[in-house]
Amino acid sequence: MLRMEAARGLLARPGMPVKRAASQSGFGKEYNLRRACAAQLGVVPSD
């Protein structure tokens, strides 16, 4: 859950690419972050 909170904070920043947020929050790849968001939040992030 900590990674998701970190990713959400990063994604709230204007202009933050999903790929970079995934890397910086510990998900590694954009795909992993998108899957986690879909599973936990019911939505997927977009650039």
What's the arrangement of secondary structure elements?
Layout: H1 2-11, H2 18-24, H3 30-41
Helix pairs in contact: 1-2, 2-3
Task: Describe what you observe in this structure.
With 47 residues, this protein is mainly α. The protein starts with a helix and ends in a 6-residue tail after the last helix. The protein is globular. α1 packs antiparallel against α2 and α2 (18-24) packs across α3. The model has no long low-confidence stretch (mean pLDDT 96). The relative contact order is 0.22. It has one domain (2-41). The longest helix is centred in the C-terminal third of the chain and has 12 residues, at 30-41. Helix content is 62%, strand content 0%.
How many beta-strand segments? 0
If you average the pLDDT, what whole number results?
Answer: 96
The secondary-structure class comes to mainly alpha
| Inertia-based shape | globular
Termini gap: 22 Å
What profile does the largest beta sheet have?
none
Number of spatially distinct domains? 1
Low-confidence stretches: none
Helix content: 55-70%
Order of helices and strands: HHH
- The number of helical runs is 3
Strand content: under 5%
Radius of gyration: 9 Å
Label this structure with key terms.
single chain, 47 residues, mainly alpha, 3 helices
Question: How would you sum up this structure in a few lines?
Answer:
With 47 residues, the chain is mainly α.
